[in-house]
Write a structure and sequence with these properties.
The chain is mostly helical. It has 2 domains: 59 residues, Glutaredoxin; 100 residues, Glutathione S-transferase Yfyf (Class Pi), Chain A, domain 2 (Up-down Bundle), CATH 1.20.1050. It has 7 helices and 2 strands, in the order H-E-E-H-H-H-H-H-H. It has a two-stranded antiparallel sheet with strand order 1-2.
């Protein structure tokens, strides 16, 4: 979102594994008490959670648009973004994977992704153009790409998801 909107920024990596998770450091907890990435310092405030960050950027720097003007398309973008950011991605976070146990992590992550992608593929059949909703990059696309990367990380076969795969390749 920052790059698409032409906003200069400095990335400060937070390694989720090194040093037993740098997100647990006192310094990072001061930025985000949930001990999760991302966190963005901008305009004198710190914002955590991807969708909140993107919405703030959209409201304060409206061009290029990441949410369509049309209320129905905007709702579709938010629905897809929430499906990924709330319904699929958190279930593969390290904190969850630790709870399911080392021996179950791969199967768990694949099941979660397949369940989410089955729903997402069905949604995208009705909303997609070149991208998730129509022919302009939106917040939904910014959520899709990292989730597909996560699917690849967990060796998910993307063959059953031609719309997801096509959009991701385009992006």
């Amino acid at each position: 979102a920052l790059a698409l909107k032409g906003i200069d920024y400095e990335t400060i990596p937070v390694n989720l594994i090194k040093d037993q998770g740098q997100q647990f450091s006192e310094e990072f907890q001061a930025l985000n008490p949930m001990k999760q990435v991302p966190a963005l310092k901008i305009d004198g405030i710190t914002i955590s959670q991807s969708l909140a960050i993107i919405e703030f950027l959209e409201e304060t720097r409206p061009t290029p648009r990441l949410l369509p003007k049309d209320p129905k398309k905007r709702a579709q973008v938010r629905m897809i973004s929430d499906t990924i950011a709330s319904g699929i991605q958190p279930l593969q976070n390290l904190s969850v994977l630790k709870q399911v146990g080392q021996e179950n992590q791969l199967a768990w992550a694949q099941k979660v992704i397949h369940t989410g992608f089955n729903a997402l593929e069905q949604i995208l059949r009705n909303t997609a153009g070149k991208y998730c909703v129509g022919d302009e990059v939106s917040m939904a696309d910014l959520c899709l790409v990292p989730q597909v990367a996560n699917a690849e990380r967990f060796k998910v076969d993307l063959t059953p998801y031609p719309t997801i795969s096509r959009i991701n390749k385009t992006l």
